[in-house]
Amino acid sequence: MTICLGLEGTAHSFGAGIVSSEGLVLSNVWDMLRPDEGGIHPREASQHHAYLGPLLIRQSIDDAGISPKQIDIIAFSQGPGLGPCLRTTATMARSLSLHLGVPLIGVNHCVAHIEIGSLESGFNDPVTIYVSGGNSQVIAFAGGRYRTFGETLDIAIGNMLDVFGRHVGMRFPAGPKVEKLAKMGSTYHTLPYSVKGMDISYSGMLTSARRLFDEGLPLDDICYSIQETAFGMLAEVAERAIAHTKKNEVLLTGGVARNNRLTEILQGVADRHGARFHRVSPPLAGDQGAMIAWTGILQYGVGDTLEISSSGVLPKWRTDEQDIGWKE
Ligand code: ATP
Ligand code: FE2
After folding, report:
1. Is 91 among the domain residues?
2. Do 265 and 219 share a structural domain?
3. Is the beta carbon of 135 within 6 A of some atom in ligand 1?
4. Number of domains forming the structure of the chain
């Protein structure tokens, strides 16, 4: 059995998780920077990781009930993400790898969101809808890589919810608050619905939603309209990807996968196509270390390790830029 400690620190959250090669999550702890107002400042987030990282790593080892000597591999989120956050996390990972004398693995954060979902669902080859604060992608495996079939042309769905939330006085993250209010809304107000080929755009509907709020329309109705429009756009692209690829598994992952209405809509799409559906469970949906640790184990299995000298961070690393050797 191989045991991997995974460190996640691409953006506002720092996480440490320990996973075994049998796919058991032995521990998974994280902490998120929640600014009182405004968005995430990269330097503040990296300071948060620098202060709390060592404590969270210690806690993940204690929670797993192992000693540091039992760790066989160190994996870290090498990208994509905010430079200062990535560098702080990479420094911790390199130090641990050197200190324990174990291999270092650089994990693509987006690939990790997919792999933890595949582990949990048992899916082999899903169409994945990956939705978070920084990403909105419809992904499927083809020719050795995770290919992006469709994605947002401007802002990510989670970011759209957070920016709207900030405009109306909600604290970050706004996604859960928008979901709660949307349940009480009943009147649909038309918002720009923008699907271009396989890609989507959220900035137009964000501007319109803010305007509706400024005009004094009830907030619950606006939240309801935002959800129905934004999720409808994703469903259309997902549906086309399923029809095109003829895959029979649909996976919903990323922080916005916590949304029950989105889950319900995509479950419906999967049902219509006779495909199995899985929504990653809330503790594994957002950013955390277990997904990095599990992907680290998969990469280790195909010898995908890093020398310290070539372990620089990759802030713009795309999902489809990594060879997925363990799936061949
Ligand atoms: P990535 O780096 O993968 O883009 P991230 O840094 O945005 O990830 P995640 O934890 O994956 O981090 O996602 C956070 C996002 O999820 C935030 O935008 C938040 O508003 C959104 N979110 C969380 N819960 C819900 C919910 N119930 N409904 C809608 N959105 C949600
Ligand atoms: Fe994420």
Report:
1. yes
2. yes
3. yes
4. 2
